[in-house]
Amino acid sequence: MRKYLLLLALSSSLAAQKKPPVTPAKPFSVVEASIADLRTALEQGRVTSRQLVELYLQRIALYEDKLNAVITVNPHALELADERDRERKEHKLRGPLHGIPVALKDNIHTTEMPTTGGALAFDGLVPPYEATLTRNLEDAGAIILAKTSLTELANWVATGMPGNYNGLVGYSMNPYDPRRDPRDNVFDGRPVMGTGGSSSGVGTAVSFWAANVGTETSGSVLSPSNQNMLVGIKPTVGRISRYGVIPITADQDTPGPMARTVSDAAIMLGALEGAQPDPHDSATKRCTPPPGRDYTRFLDANALKGARIGIPRVFYWDSITPPGARQPRRGLPDAQLKLMNEALDVLRNAGAVIVDPANIPSVLAKDPRDNLILWGTCGGLDNAKGLDADCSIDFKYGMKRDFNAWLTSLGAKAPVKTLTELRQWNIAHQRAGAIKYGQANLDVSDEMDLQADRSRYQADRARDLRLAGIEGIDAAMKQNNLDALLFAGAGGASISARPGYPTVIVPFGMVPNAPNPPLPEGFDAKPQPLGVSFAGMACSEPRLIALAYAFEQATRRRVAPPSFP
Questions:
Q1: Strand 484-488 vs strand 308-310: parallel, antiparallel, or unpaired?
Q2: Tell me, what's the pLDDT at 10?
Q3: Are 304 and 550 a contacting pair, CB within 8 Å?
Q4: Is residue 512 part of a domain?
Q5: How many angstroms separate the CA atoms of 65 and 63, rounded?
Q6: Quick one: 357 exposed, middle or buried, by C-beta within 10 A (0-12, 13-18, 19+)?
Q7: Distance between CA atoms of residues 395 and 494, nearest Å
Q8: What's the CATH number where 206 sits?
Q9: DSSP state of 72
Q10: Which of 128, 339, 432, 495 is the most exposed place for a label (fewest CB within 10 A)?
Q11: In total, how many domains does the chain have?
Q12: Per the domain annotation, does 357 fall within a domain?
């Protein structure tokens, strides 16, 4: 289906070329072109939206077989581009993305293309309604060019599933080293350099479109942004409506933009956010949008002057042995620590005040019941009922509750009616490629009893909020009067995800790709990206965007994947 739609779109493009071409006054390239570049070229008449779509489709045709970044190409993309071009001629611009092609993660509803979540059971599913964020993007003038690949059902199917693998189209490759992992113990087709997940940043990294929208429950915008040298904004939960997004748990799910620059990500965030709360998602009452939903007003190259940036030294930078444990936990590898120290020098030179340490109190707690490190998220058969006393059941309880509600919202179009039916369908279709890595996370979710387990869920949710929020980020920031906490890559994703707090990640450098067990002798592993993340409390996106932009302007470290010119 995906290849058919891709060929259909390309053949339409070629057919259009038989018409007298409108040649731009100057050749225009979409490679690494920012949204501002695209808007300027459109305004000056150097390119049309149709031509932009054709240029992006040409790149997809040229490189997609090496990367597997796309699940579906919109067969109506050229028609939409023509419509945007007519509107432009009539001076009827819809918004800041008028005529600009973008992509959506394939767990976000569109009614012009299927929404599959990467699951075989949902192959070809065209939902009966659009996601609120899809409508918001269309209202801003965007052309939804494609649906990106993803880790199946946002990585809540199985433990051990590689990022950006799904049963529908297989593995995506990282454009900074698009080879398969040669190690015998994982020789199943996965990439040698992780793509991050569950969202995909691959297509944006190689300029298949201007920017894309991912979703995150814990790390799924920040991780692929880090691995693909992108800017990612993981917003406060509720900043962007989740209506029409295949869920894991409403407690932590949020869409978020991924782009090549902070400016582009800020433009996307404003387009994604609603002007008013969404009646379908009560969490959208949490944060007040800025005037005009314009986050570009916060792009201040001098924002780091006097900013107080906290270093959560223990666990997130340096390892620690928590109460009752025998081995130290986390800390950064030497190469990452060296690069992060370079980032601190940049911050100091830009006038920031580095508060080091600004440790997370719950990470230092002596009582195991109050220690965040010892309080993980239940997942997999090792955390089935009866084995889940020392972890939060929020994901597995939320999946049972929210996924079943989503299936109900599909009405007669739902291929399966419940999580139980999905599990049964997967078992019946294993030979077709379903559940290559099992479905342990679906299994432990389905064993939840939404009534009998409700009090346990509520207690675990309260503990999540206390350890990660009140006694975590809130305490560290308030005690030290901070503007942001600084993390390496997506290293702070989990602590921010539990209370639903925002983070902005910015590309910064490269570190060795050194997995364990090691790659075979003689295999020339390419270095992999590492970004710098600015994290804050609820609704602090304006300040985080300002800090991230100032850091980006002081460094400008993003490098396009050299194999995909």
A1: parallel
A2: 52
A3: yes
A4: no
A5: 6
A6: middle
A7: 12
A8: 3.90.1300.10
A9: E
A10: 432
A11: 1
A12: no
Tokens matching residue 548: 């991230």
User: Is 291 a domain residue?
Assistant: yes
pTM of the model: 0.95
Helix (H, G, I), strand (E, B) or coil at 188: coil
Angle at 500 between CA 506 and CA 479, to 5 degrees: 80
Q: Active-site residues: which are they? A: 105, 198, 220
- The percent helix, strand, coil of the chain (3-state, each to 5) is 40, 15, 45
What pLDDT, in 10s, does the model give residues 409-444? Answer: 999 999 999 999 999 999 999 999 999 999 999 999
> 117, 70 in Cβ contact below 8 A?
no
Give the residue from 494, 468, 509, 492 showing the smallest Cα distance to 544. 492
Q: Which domain holds residue 250?
A: 2-296
**pLDDT for residue 1:** 47
CB 30 within 8 A of CB 42: no
Angle, in degrees to the nearest 10, between helices 35-43 and 262-272: 80
* Whether residue 12 has pLDDT greater than 90: no
Residue 261 lies in a domain: yes
Residue 7 has pLDDT above 90, yes or no: no
d(CA 53, CA 45): 15
- Listed in sequence order, the residues at least 6 apart from 82 whose beta carbon sits closer than 8 Å to its beta carbon are 49, 50
Query: Residue 462: which region, alpha, beta or left (left: phi > 0; alpha: psi -120 to 50)?
Result: alpha
CB 495 within 8 A of CB 468: yes
Given a contact cutoff of 8 angstroms between Cβ atoms, the answer to whether 30 and 207 are in contact is: yes
Distance CA 12, CA 440 (A): 43
In angstroms, the CA 106 to CA 507 distance is 24
Retrieve residue 47's tokens: 């390119």
Residue 8's pLDDT is what? Answer: 47
